[in-house]
Amino acid sequence: MENLLLFGFMTLYMYWHRKSFNLGMYGNKDSLNLHFLLSKRCDITRLFKQHQLWYHIWDELGNATDAELHYFLNLIYPTVNDQKSKLFDCSDDNYKGFHSQKSEKEAIYPDESYYRWASSHLTQNMNKQSNHQSLNQNGTPNSHNQGLFNDFFNIGSLNNHSNVLPKTIEFQKKLFKHQNPMTCEGKRFIELPINDWGLGSVLIHLSRKFIMAMNHGYIPIMPRKKWVWASGTHFCGKDNSFTCFFEEISNCTNYYYANYSSKNTMAYLDKLPPPFHFPVWIEEFLSDTPIFNSLETNLYYSEAQVLAYLMRPKQKLIQWMDDYIKKDPLPSKKIDVSMHIRHGDKGIEMKLIPTMEYMNAAKIIQRLEKKKNLTIFISTEDQNAIYQLRNSTNDVHVLAFNHERTNGGYHAFKKDATNVALISFLNLRECLRSKYFVGTVRSCWSFVTNALRISVGFHFNEIYFEVGQETCLSVCHCKKIGRPRNRPYTWGIW
């Protein structure tokens, strides 16, 4: 009873403070009146509690009214201007004039390779552009590249980049200029150690090492040593390193290897606390945005940005994916929802989520979209998950590529690591394209996928449906349940 009264007073205060609740993208934009908010019909206090497995809450919301569902989601994902995010605090009063980018000149990535995940149909002229000739000396895109981008991607207004993390373009230009100086002489360099771990785990840790090196005044260099995920000669040829798949991270790499006989490699501890892993200037950088200032949110934001930079795919990777799809096309080009279902050896680190529990989130999406027959793309190593979904669901269209799947985990993947990596990137691209994504961020691959979705995937404003282990889903939600640090656990080191 005390909790119910507390919720009632909170609701009354919010009503007086904000007058009305905009239900945003979900359709009904009528204000919720005070009587309705305090009535039993909108008693969703049961949803403001600590959940250990988040597919439970989507199941509970299945019994909620449409008004309760919209009300809950708008609290979990507050909206500031035209952006919706779990990173925002509960109030948007101080950011009425906020925009994702400040001007049209800033609404363009510093290099065309950032756009490759979003579109593989790049012009031949773009392909000819050197990765390190995209910025003028003052750090702005040269006029030739700007014209290409504007013509092909129709980037002519702020709206085209309003669906990325706030200040993404500005952050990426800072990274690009740091990594690609006008001269390499007099700079300090350090190699990032790259581990033979699971693919998602390696990428997350590389992003943290990258920022740590940058904070100490170094230009991070990717080592040219053999990497297990690029060990197959059928695709990588002689380049068995990170750059088999991704663009070089610095224009000084050749200079470093030509002039430094003694290599400088970072000594790194795997579980350093969050402050080591975001730029020292990040608080001031984000101070004019609605993003909540905390160790975890700064880390989450920074990792998403650095992963976007590190994982700029080479054109040959995009071409491989395009060629694969020609041989194994998906029956539908329009995908509503993508899911990454992580089973196998991940059970050592987290509770595995049963396949059909992922559908709890899909049922909520059906209601939001007012669309019964959703098209769902499945990314998974578990072939049984695909069989189960196809045989047990009548109101969704389940898509998946017809590749061989091994559910044995990292040690099994190593036997055919390069092919596993290629298939993973193929699935990743489809997950970046769908409007909604369902997964669990304790899966490193789901974490990487969502990080790219809110940056180079242009899906920052879309709701991410967590189904795994997490106490709360957003800054605002953590506050509502009284979690001391006000941030989800999985935004930090886990």
Automatic annotation (TrEMBL):
InterPro entries: Fut8_N_cat (IPR045573)
A Pfam family per the record: FUT8_N_cat
GO biological process: protein N-linked glycosylation
All residue ranges annotated as the Alpha-(1,6)-fucosyltransferase N- and catalytic domain in the record: 170-399
Single Gene Ontology MF annotation: alpha-(1->6)-fucosyltransferase activity
Domain of life: Eukaryota
Transmembrane segments: none
UniProt xrefs under PANTHER family: ALPHA- 1,6 -FUCOSYLTRANSFERASE, ALPHA-(1,6)-FUCOSYLTRANSFERASE
Protein name: Alpha-(1,6)-fucosyltransferase N- and catalytic domain-containing protein
UniProt organism field: Tritrichomonas foetus
